[in-house]
Amino acid sequence: MPKQFIDQYGRILNYLRLSVTDRCNFRCYYCMPEEGIDFVDRKQLLSYEELQFLLEIFTEYGVNKLRITGGEPFVRRGLVEFLGRISQLDGLSEMAITTNGSLSFSQIDALADMGIRSINISLDSLDKKRFFEITRRDKFDEVFSAILYMIDRGFEVKLNAVIADNKNTQDILPFVELTKHHCVSVRFLEEMPFNGTGTFEVPTWNHVVIKKHVLSHYPTMRRLPDEANSTSVNYQIPGYKGTFGIIASYSRTFCGTCNRLRLSATGELRTCLYGAPALNLRDLLRSGANRDEVIQELQRAVCKKEKDGFEAESIVAQTPKKSMSFLGG
Ligand code: SF4
Known about the structure:
By secondary structure, this protein is α/β, with parallel strands linked by helices. The chain has helices at about 50-60, 80-85, 105-115, 130-135, 140-150, 170-180, 205-215, 280-285, 290-305, 310-315, 325; strands at about 15-20, 65-70, 95-100, 120, 155-165, 185-190, 220-225, 230-235, 245, 260-265, 270, 280.
């Protein structure tokens, strides 16, 4: 067997999205209710030692891109030290982070020192009041100054904005204008059904509507070449420093080239964001499984990856969907 994770459709799965915690200091409406979710007990989380053991296997089997997510990853104690250790893993060519931006400047410096270059920040509005209404936290100034500091420090900064009717559609054009003077990639995402409430309305502002809206104001916008395995369709306004993209996260137009695996902080391995856990690696480890047994179970699980997000969702249609804070995005 080649030391790679290949699914039944021949897709090579070399990108792991690792959630290190389900906890978050924000309460974004599209992710969890204001009162939060039933956060898991810390003993239920994979320890940093268990994570390191698993990451050594993932990287040995061809995972070369690792994204650290949460909840909010920086609420977990000892994260920066852990990142320092795993950034040395053989075979890892890229380590990136997704955060809500409420991290300190010293943490940013530490990330730069360990060679992390790519950071995604969830920012759904450039208006302080709307930011508060969406996140239920009055943290706009901290987040925005952290973003400007990261751009200054030369990070590849991507801003993820979940667009929704009656929430922040009036932010789309200001975000595009932000790319005029800042070397930043803004991505507009469709809302997804992982809000921890069990209720969801199909988004009206989908990738087609968002593109039409921007195009009507920027007829000269030009499409950029697609990056391999990318979920974002990217554009640039001539003369602008930055770029923007649209991610059809609910319409799921990009599953054919999906190379993603997801590991939750409690060890649930998902081969698709919309699907059920294929395996629980924490339970496997804590049941005494050795390295070879873990690898065998992993290969068995990834091989059965669903064709696309619709197939994955249909299999678990009756099961209430977890919050994005648990799934890790
Ligand atoms: S919906 Fe599932 S199959 Fe499609 S891109 Fe996302 S994770 Fe991959």
